[in-house]
Amino acid sequence: MRDDPAVIRMVIGARDGDRGAWDDLVERYAPLVWTICRRFGLSAADVDDVGQSVWLLLVEHLPGLREPAALPGWIATTTRHECLRMVRAGHRTEPADPVELLAAAPYDEVPLDEELLLHERRTTVRTAFGQLSQRCRLLLSMLVQDPPPAYCEISDKLHMPIGSIGPNRARCLDRLRQTPALAALIGPIEDGGEQHG
Questions:
Q1: Which residues does residue 189 pair with via DSSP β-bridges, in sequence order?
Q2: The domain at 1-108 falls in which architecture?
Q3: Phi and psi for 66 in degrees, rounded to 5?
Q4: How many Cα atoms occupy the beta-carbon half-sphere of 116 within 13 Å?
Q5: Residues 6+ positions from 20 with CB-CB distance below 8 Å
Q6: Burial status of residue 188 (CB atoms within 10 A of its CB: 0-12, 13-18, 19 or more)
Q7: Picking from 114-118, 145-149, 189-193, which range would have the lowest pLDDT averaged per residue?
Q8: How far is residue 186's CA from residue 171's CA, in Å, rounded to a whole number?
Q9: Which of 25, 35, 49, 125 is in the most buried spot, having the most CB atoms within 10 Å?
Q10: DSSP, residue by residue, 125-180
């Protein structure tokens, strides 16, 4: 994981009492917390409880965080521990061997570095997506819905001829690939269309 200067600035700002920096940290890492919680199969209420615990623990531990760039790893590790605590609490009424509880946990173990890399990539894609025009964001959002709406519905909503939906989609995806953040993530595209990087 590279040291992200934005994360370092947010941590230092939050540590110094900057409410905006704190809000930025929560906004950036709440999806990571949510993803880890969902892998444990927690209910929505339990996910909310784990999230609140993670942010409360961060408030307590932020002044002692020696390396601000280590924050994503700290959040992921703390979230996993809180999820395990929640799973154990759900089994409190049944006596059980802790080793069996861990083995029975519905969590699909993903190495921490992979978890953080996935989160970083998702954050980069969201940032790049936000840099597109509103029309491109609307079109691409409609096309990735599950199930996607019919082209006639897209045409009506966006006032776009049906025959131009595909070409507009291609242009919007090209613009997305060319945003600085995503271009750095993807790497150069060779003439043959293959990506390297």
A1: 195
A2: Orthogonal Bundle (1.10)
A3: -70, -35
A4: 17
A5: 13
A6: exposed
A7: 189-193
A8: 17
A9: 25
A10: HHHHHHTS-HHHHHHHHHHTSSSPPPHHHHHHHHT--HHHHHHHHHHHHHHHHHSH
Q: Please report where in the chains the tokens 């802790």 appear, as a residue.
A: 98
**Where do we find the tokens 């623990």?**
57
pLDDT at 109 over 70: no
Encode pLDDT of 27-79 as tens digits: 888 888 988 888 888 888 888 899 999 999 999 988 888 888 888 888 989 99
136's CB contacts (< 8 A; 6+ apart) are 168, 171, 172, 175, 176
* 74-101 pLDDT per residue, tens: 898 999 999 998 888 774 334 445 555 4
For 7-27, give one letter per residue: b (16+ CB within 10 A) or e. beebbebbeeeeeebbebbbe
Which tokens sit at 112?
Answer: 């921490």
Contact 168, 160 (CB under 8 A): yes
Q: Compute, in degrees rounded to 10, the torsion defined by CA atoms 135, 139, 141, 146.
A: 160
Kindly state the helix (H) or strand (E) to which residue 10 belongs, with its residue range: helix 5-15
What are the residue ranges spanned by the domains of the chain?
A: 1-108
Nearest one of 87, 167, 71 to 175, comparing CA atoms: 167
Residue 128 has pLDDT above 70, yes or no: yes
